[in-house]
């Protein structure tokens, strides 16, 4: 298989990475749809879990996902607003490792309201359960499937958080039969520093 056109071009690699992130938001079937989110646990241990990528603003260099205010990850991000996002597309043989700082948008906040309004009724339903996620329950079936929250309704909005990740660095790794390629992009303000790394 031939390597992609952007194989040996740092600028094109970066543009392709952002294009894939944007596709992850738009395309349910994209491998970039469901990154692994890494945070620092409250006692300092690493924590990872899958989230759905809900937003990508290439101009602002931000990514967004949604979660429950009562979740462990929110407590962790309140303590240390640092996130790592890991993406791997087996078809493209491409891994992205992204590091950034997080802002939690909740309650009376335009970002949270817009994100809530743009969510599907079934996605909003996740935030309506009384018992905080991660709490022990008596029976597996103790929490019934919640009904969808229709457009315009705010049931569950109190528990809803839109997390915006300001991207500080992207590490790009392509595994190619003609040789692997690895690059790092870091930002200082709007200035990007790009370098190849030994793979
Ligand atoms: C495919 C998939 C998508 C998920 N998307 C989200 C998500 O967008 N937001 C979220 O809070 N949890 C999501 N989860 C659940 C998390 O992986 C995790 O189990 C849960 O949020 C609790 O994590 P925490 O205790 O570290 O906060 C998803 C899980 C899977 C398997």
Textual characterization of the structure:
The protein is of the alpha+beta class and 199 residues long. The chain has a single domain (10-197), classed as Electron Transport, Fmn-binding Protein, Chain A (Pnp Oxidase, Chain A), CATH 2.30.110. It is built from 4 helices and 9 strands, in the order H-E-E-E-E-H-E-E-H-H-E-E-E. The chain has helices at 10-26, 72-79, 110-118, 121-125, and strands at residues 36-40, 46-50, 55-57, 62-68, 82-89, 94-106, 160-174, 181-188, 191-197. Strands 1, 2, 3, 4, 5, 6, 7, 8 and 9 form a 9-stranded antiparallel sheet that branches. The longest helix has 17 residues, at 10-26. The chain is elongated. The protein starts with 9 loop residues before the first helix and ends with a strand. The protein binds flavin mononucleotide.
């Amino acid at each position: 298989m031939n390597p992609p056109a952007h194989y040996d071009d740092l600028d094109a690699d970066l543009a392709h990475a952002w294009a894939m992130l944007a596709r992850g938001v738009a395309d349910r079937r994209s491998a970039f749809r469901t990154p692994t989110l890494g945070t620092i646990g409250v006692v300092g241990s690493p924590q990872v879990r899958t989230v759905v990528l809900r937003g990508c603003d290439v101009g602002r260099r931000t990514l967004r996902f949604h979660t429950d205010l009562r979740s462990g990850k929110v407590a962790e991000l309140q303590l240390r607003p640092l996130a790592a996002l890991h993406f791997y597309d087996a078809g493209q043989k491409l891994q992205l490792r992204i590091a950034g700082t997080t802002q939690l948008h909740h309650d009376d906040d335009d970002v949270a309201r817009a994100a809530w309004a743009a969510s599907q009724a079934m996605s909003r339903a996740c935030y309506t359960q009384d018992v905080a996620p991660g709490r022990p329950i008596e029976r597996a079936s103790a929490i019934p499937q919640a009904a969808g929250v229709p457009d315009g309704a705010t049931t569950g909005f109190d528990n809803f958080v839109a997390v915006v990740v300001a991207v500080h660095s992207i590490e790009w790794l392509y595994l190619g039969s003609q040789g692997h390629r690895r690059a790092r992009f870091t930002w200082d303000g709007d200035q990007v520093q790009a370098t190849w790394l030994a793979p």
